[in-house]
């Protein structure tokens, strides 16, 4: 990659960053986490976390990345020389690798479903047969590993080409098409018999369903869908010119992310209640409910194949960002090294992800803390490492960087008022750390002991 390579346009950066944020986090994970976490109450808490904590942190990561103009580890070293803050970048690389190790498994499931659809394996199935199909696919060790490998290979091919010719070019095409198709699906889903009940479940809060763990999941989901706390957005922002409006870009990304989460819920929960699926069905939810919805549509198979293709590419746009942070750290903007290290990290992630891929088959009985390897890696990355990464990122920005420097960087490319800046700074310095710490203490039972 050339030394001066940057995003070629403002919209290119926003779509690439939105692709990182949206991906499987919004389409696959949000519906099933919302289903197990309390529906409308979970969605409201998730919304508040995204706006009041996620947005300030995203702007902060953008400021660090654009100001540093380097890979995540080098940025922290330059901004806090002689300190341990560079560990934030190193932990970010670890988070990206861990997340992609299980994320690629779901990407593989999408590829296997696409193969089934193209070869007629989804024609005329009943609801029970959709369930059986999903169980057969995820328990087949050879198929899951092949699907996972293909997904990682596709990721590597794009990322190896660099920011402009790889990540940005693909994102600018795929993200708008995904929005359009999703809207078509939602319109059809809302005409199903159980649409009213599904909408009620998603949009009307029942706070009696909330637990401390579901609040932690909402916090983790906010960070996971926006890819915060892992230095991914720091890395993406390092390719930005000084003319980019950081607060506006961050707000656009947050709103697109929330909009797609809402669309995913409206696409899936009407089908869930129409066909008698448990909202708390977990990871299989999107793979069981959506085929049933498409089965009720004219030309349903055609639309489902189109959705799977775009679902795959949405997953890939997230995967690009997860591997990019590791590649940026090691390749140091050298195109030849970029290609070599992208393939190296791709193979490493594939090997690390093998236990997750086998978690519903050969290794189904292997459990730690009552979780499969897949669930444990997901939980550790999404609900522990990313929130902790976000906590220390907020502490770094608000306590190690001068307030005047933050204001100067934010105002480059943006007409930011003093009240806006001070509100942002307060949320970043006080509200975000406090919320993260309180949620963790509640989950650990410390608050129950105190009160």
TrEMBL record:
Ranges that cross the membrane: 12-34, 40-64, 85-115, 142-161, 173-195, 215-239, 251-277, 297-329, 341-364, 376-397, 418-441
CDD domains with a match to the protein in the record: SLC6sbd_Tyt1-Like
Keywords: Membrane, Transmembrane, Transmembrane helix, Transport
Membrane topology (UniProt): Multi-pass membrane protein
Keyword Transmembrane helix in annotation: yes
Compartments (UniProt record): Membrane
PANTHER family: TRANSPORTER
Protein name (Swiss-Prot/TrEMBL): Sodium-dependent transporter
Upper taxonomic lineage: Bacteria, Bacillati, Bacillota, Bacilli, Bacillales
